[in-house]
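Subject: Protein entry, chain in single-letter code together with its fold tokens

Area: Proteins and the way their chains fold up in space.

Attached in line: The record itself begins immediately under this heading.
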Amino acid sequence: MTFELLSALVLFAFASSITPGPNNIMLMASGANFGLRRTLPHMFGVSIGHSAMTLILGLGLVQVFDLIPWLRMALTLVSVAYLLWLAWKVANAAPPADAPEDARPLTFLQAACFQWVNPKAIYMSIYAQTTFAPPDGGWLGAVAVAVIFGMVNIPSVATWAWGGVQVRRWLDGPGRLRAFNWTMAGLLVLSLYPLVASGFSPD
């Protein structure tokens, strides 16, 4: 991978990882509701799970989507339904003092699996592999893209989780926390707009 290609990949990975999207919105809400320590499995699940998905797509799954167009449409519909359900859960999260004993943030595995129904994450992976993987790099090129993306992604998503923790000090009242959670839920729904506006087009 040339220096120019590497630089472009790092810039794309940073820009796409640090901007608002389902992962970052959920991490900020988790940091505000559960604190940073309890959000760490969620955070690492996002980064490692997304890197794994990027690698799998680079090793050939992108071609499967091209051969079976309805598969991507089905995945998109599932993604939209799941994100709407998550938005409802975020909006109705109880304040920490009133939360049920079994209330907890996403686990590492749940966050990793969530990448497969996160439209933004899927687009990021497909674009990264089809744009930045060296055409003559074979499987090593796909690995390089996934590893670099993961290295840039971790500090980016950590920023959002940390931001949620900082916001928490101003959410000392149940009314404020409820307003924050509803705002996060609304942003989560709005993150679906580019997908819906494009008519679920994979391009």
Q: What stands out?
A: The mean pLDDT is 80. The chain has one domain: 3-96+106-197. The radius of gyration is 17 Å. The chain is about 80% helix and 0% strand.
